[in-house]
Amino acid sequence: MTDAPKRDYRDTVFLPVTSFPMRGELAKREPALLERWQRIGLWQRLRAAAAGRPKFILHDGPPYANGNIHIGHALNKILKDVINRAKQMAGYDANYVPGWDCHGLPIEWKIEEQYRAAGRDKDAVDPVAFRAECRAYAAHWMAVQSAEFQRLGVAGDWAKPYSTMDFRSEAMIWREIGRFLMNGGLYRGAKPVLWSPVEKTALADAEVEYHDHRSTTVWVRFPVLEAPAPDLRGASIVIWTTTPWTIPGNRAVAYGAEIDYALVAVEGARDGARARVGEHLLVALHLLPDVAKEAGITQHLVRRVLKGAELAGTVCAHPLRGKGYEVDVPALPGDFVTTDAGTGFVHIAPGHGEEDWLLGQKHGLPTPDTVGPDGRFLDHVPLFAGIHVYEAADPVCDALAEAGALLARGVLVHSYPHSWRSKAPLIFRNTPQWFVAMDGPNGVRARALAAIEATRFVPPQGKNRLRAMIAQRPDWCVSRQRAWGVPIAIFVEKRTGEPLRDQAVIDRIAEAFEREGADAWWTTPPAVFLGEGRNPDDYEQVRDIIEVWFESGSTHAFVLEGSESLAWPADLYLEGSDQHRGWFHSSLLESCGTRGRAPYKAVLTHGFTLDEQGRKMSKSLGNVVAPQEVIAEYGADILRLWVMASDYTEDQRIGPEILKQQAELYRRIRNTLRWLIGALDGFTEAERVSPEAMPELERWVLHRLAELDSRVREATEGYTWTGVFAELHQFCATDLSAFYFDIRKDSLYCDRPDSPRRRAVRTVLDHLFHCLTAWLAPVLVFTAEEAWLARFPSEDGSVHLRLFPEVPAAWRDETLAAKWARIRELRRAVTGALEKERAEGRIGSSLQAAPVLHLTGPDAGLLDAATWAEVAITSGLTVSTDPAPPGAFTLEGLAGVAVVPERAEGRKCERCWKVLPEVGTHEDHPGLCDRCADAVRSGLVTRRRAA
């Protein structure tokens, strides 16, 4: 047949048609989708659709209403949102009520900063007016953060969030304190607590940071007055401390009963040393060389070695005796004494340390008050009245030296507790505080430990961490000496010192708080609360406030309990791993102390955000990544992808290069969705075919969908999302784009629309679209919505109103999966051979080839030649069981497989571009192959050009 002029068959090819753009331009499109969700009332419709389903409640740990959100906030809220959305799509009623922590020191500190800048004295301001300023400040930042969280695509009841400063919340927080008051778990006692002299308040462990601090160290003589052994009298016990300012509060010396101590006679000292030749010192034998070096002792004689237990009954003089400190100092056994550093003796100041106080309580020691709220020694303290503890090292050392008690002085740089807000070093200070007893009548510790065993932890190591903290923690100090918060609204009887325990009084106070807020404690006459028959003059009205960790630990009581739309206990608490000592901890203690169990069934913790080099973010390093900036450049979906593409149980890294990588991952996923939408243009139910009628390749894709469905549902149920998004991306990029789509484009574009193979392909693509958009919807909330609406335009529809598709178990076919895994391995040999041919210029496209594939054994029967040609994307392929000729292409690791590249015989079809001998045999369409000529003659393929 003679060559005929070429015809343009482009209008007969089914190229993808879609309005879904290749470029995401998320920063521009996402706000419009947010507005749309508001307009169609998506949140309300989700709640209505979920009515009657099993509830899933992720209780929101309240962020602090103080400043714009940071990248850690974004990580936390996105992870919560993904879990909530996935649960909703898995068939639960996943109502989410966001909340804020609004009371406490950071906000109060901000208002005080404003006062200081304006030259105002906070203490001269009416507390109710001051509290009003704090409330307004918190309300402003709640509104700012709410908008920022919503811009991240976080779905929730933003119209009705909770906050700890809501009047009802304040009333319920007080009621929770009232529960402890009534059940005997709350008491007032004088005990040393971590105290900030700058903020003038006690601090919780979670409000403490540790930084390097330069401390003055002293070795101090305590002269022995009485001892069981005569040779000890006149000697001096030597102590070492890094807090010289605590010496005025000393009331004992502790020793280790099993430690070996040396009675040392000083026989030589270097010039300028404070050690005196002829004196006798008692130090731990193990630490004697260190002490001798620090004290400048050049020669000494060990008179004898004795066990610490032999010191029982020893009494020393205070090192400042004769200067106003006329107290005896007993030597007492302490199981906390070690020989790791120092002298093997510990000076005991019951007002300045937990172990000191406990030892003092055990042996009836007094607990002197020496330091005031501002960190200055009180007026009655001899020698040091009015001196600040930060500046006390020199005066104390001078006084010790003058008294002959200072043996040596040095400097130590060590990790030391600081306030997380003011960054100032903290002190242990004995103050009257309100405590929840850990081992009192409620048995809070025992209940909490039992509750931990009944709780699921993700990752599991969180259980051990929290259990260790609960097992070792002291009684819970729940009072603070500040103004902004819920007051400990207790009346203490002046005559007995006992708190008034009367449920009617508690209820009256709570009712007033619910009507007017906690300001009522300052504005309402005490007689109103006390009721008839009680004289307000007989009672002290406590002005301390409740610490914020107790407040946030009580949120389960006023957010979940008694709510029709929520449930108690929560299914999940989810925060950063630092909350083992924060919110998880306080919520557990509060709930166990009042309800006997944890307020949660499971606890999930995530890591922290670091920069690309693994460094903590800080303004000084210039490595802070602000979520607002990421959204402006990339869009919120890229941030969401970053969260879910990482292992959130570990610390996560983020920075410019990592964000570029996430944008590239996103591009591949978006292109997958775009191609699916385009390839499904015009799909109708009439095209659908059952899996039984599909080719094996389509059934393999259905198998992969069944595998991924199981993975997504397991992650949804178990909160184990790490790796899931990587699997979805791998599926899109490798299984689909680089394999299945590549193979089936020929059939999709060129087969007749009524051909069984093309119908099977389109049916599978429809399943893919429904599954992928659903599985991606919890993560890429904006992109999944955009893709869904691009295929199914609607005024009020949404991908988020869907449930996960039901994937039939029958789609799972492990035998088929194993077969196609082997086929893909063998295909690598064919594509490798053709790539070499292309690189060396012998072919331009794989369709110009018809290779010979040499296989042995079972491999030879995997596919017929025609199907192999489809899979290899060649115009033909021959399967041979003959030995491969010399020079055939092989791949390392694929034994028994070889490929001989051959050029396809025939002419190139002008429509499908395959090279086939039959091209030119059709008079009406001489440029077409048999399949394409049939398709064009059918009249079913004329269509508009691709957009």
TrEMBL record:
<dbReference type="GO" id="GO:0004822">
    <property type="term" value="F:isoleucine-tRNA ligase activity"/>
</dbReference>
<feature type="domain" description="Zinc finger FPG/IleRS-type">
    <location>
        <begin position="908"/>
        <end position="934"/>
    </location>
</feature>
<feature type="binding site">
    <location>
        <position position="575"/>
    </location>
    <ligand>
        <name>L-isoleucyl-5'-AMP</name>
    </ligand>
</feature>
<keyword id="KW-0030">Aminoacyl-tRNA synthetase</keyword>
<keyword id="KW-0479">Metal-binding</keyword>
<dbReference type="GO" id="GO:0005524">
    <property type="term" value="F:ATP binding"/>
</dbReference>
<dbReference type="GO" id="GO:0005829">
    <property type="term" value="C:cytosol"/>
</dbReference>
<dbReference type="Pfam" id="PF00133">
    <property type="entry name" value="tRNA-synt_1"/>
</dbReference>
<comment type="subunit">
    <text>Monomer.</text>
</comment>
<dbReference type="GO" id="GO:0006428">
    <property type="term" value="P:isoleucyl-tRNA aminoacylation"/>
</dbReference>
<feature type="domain" description="Aminoacyl-tRNA synthetase class Ia">
    <location>
        <begin position="33"/>
        <end position="654"/>
    </location>
</feature>
<dbReference type="InterPro" id="IPR002301">
    <property type="entry name" value="Ile-tRNA-ligase"/>
</dbReference>
<keyword id="KW-0067">ATP-binding</keyword>
<feature type="binding site">
    <location>
        <position position="932"/>
    </location>
    <ligand>
        <name>Zn(2+)</name>
    </ligand>
</feature>
<feature type="domain" description="Methionyl/Valyl/Leucyl/Isoleucyl-tRNA synthetase anticodon-binding">
    <location>
        <begin position="698"/>
        <end position="849"/>
    </location>
</feature>
<feature type="short sequence motif" description="'HIGH' region">
    <location>
        <begin position="63"/>
        <end position="73"/>
    </location>
</feature>
<feature type="binding site">
    <location>
        <position position="929"/>
    </location>
    <ligand>
        <name>Zn(2+)</name>
    </ligand>
</feature>
<dbReference type="GO" id="GO:0008270">
    <property type="term" value="F:zinc ion binding"/>
</dbReference>
<feature type="binding site">
    <location>
        <position position="619"/>
    </location>
    <ligand>
        <name>ATP</name>
    </ligand>
</feature>
<dbReference type="Pfam" id="PF08264">
    <property type="entry name" value="Anticodon_1"/>
</dbReference>
<keyword id="KW-0648">Protein biosynthesis</keyword>
<keyword id="KW-0862">Zinc</keyword>
<comment type="function">
    <text>Catalyzes the attachment of isoleucine to tRNA(Ile). As IleRS can inadvertently accommodate and process structurally similar amino acids such as valine, to avoid such errors it has two additional distinct tRNA(Ile)-dependent editing activities. One activity is designated as 'pretransfer' editing and involves the hydrolysis of activated Val-AMP. The other activity is designated 'posttransfer' editing and involves deacylation of mischarged Val-tRNA(Ile).</text>
</comment>
<feature type="short sequence motif" description="'KMSKS' region">
    <location>
        <begin position="616"/>
        <end position="620"/>
    </location>
</feature>
<dbReference type="InterPro" id="IPR010663">
    <property type="entry name" value="Znf_FPG/IleRS"/>
</dbReference>
<keyword id="KW-0436">Ligase</keyword>
<dbReference type="InterPro" id="IPR002300">
    <property type="entry name" value="aa-tRNA-synth_Ia"/>
</dbReference>
<dbReference type="GO" id="GO:0000049">
    <property type="term" value="F:tRNA binding"/>
</dbReference>
<dbReference type="Pfam" id="PF06827">
    <property type="entry name" value="zf-FPG_IleRS"/>
</dbReference>
<keyword id="KW-0547">Nucleotide-binding</keyword>
<dbReference type="InterPro" id="IPR013155">
    <property type="entry name" value="M/V/L/I-tRNA-synth_anticd-bd"/>
</dbReference>
<comment type="similarity">
    <text>Belongs to the class-I aminoacyl-tRNA synthetase family. IleS type 1 subfamily.</text>
</comment>
<dbReference type="InterPro" id="IPR050081">
    <property type="entry name" value="Ile-tRNA_ligase"/>
</dbReference>
<keyword id="KW-0963">Cytoplasm</keyword>
<dbReference type="InterPro" id="IPR033708">
    <property type="entry name" value="Anticodon_Ile_BEm"/>
</dbReference>
<protein>
    <recommendedName>
        <fullName>Isoleucine--tRNA ligase</fullName>
        <ecNumber>6.1.1.5</ecNumber>
    </recommendedName>
</protein>
<feature type="binding site">
    <location>
        <position position="912"/>
    </location>
    <ligand>
        <name>Zn(2+)</name>
    </ligand>
</feature>
<dbReference type="InterPro" id="IPR001412">
    <property type="entry name" value="aa-tRNA-synth_I_CS"/>
</dbReference>
<dbReference type="InterPro" id="IPR023585">
    <property type="entry name" value="Ile-tRNA-ligase_type1"/>
</dbReference>
<feature type="binding site">
    <location>
        <position position="909"/>
    </location>
    <ligand>
        <name>Zn(2+)</name>
    </ligand>
</feature>
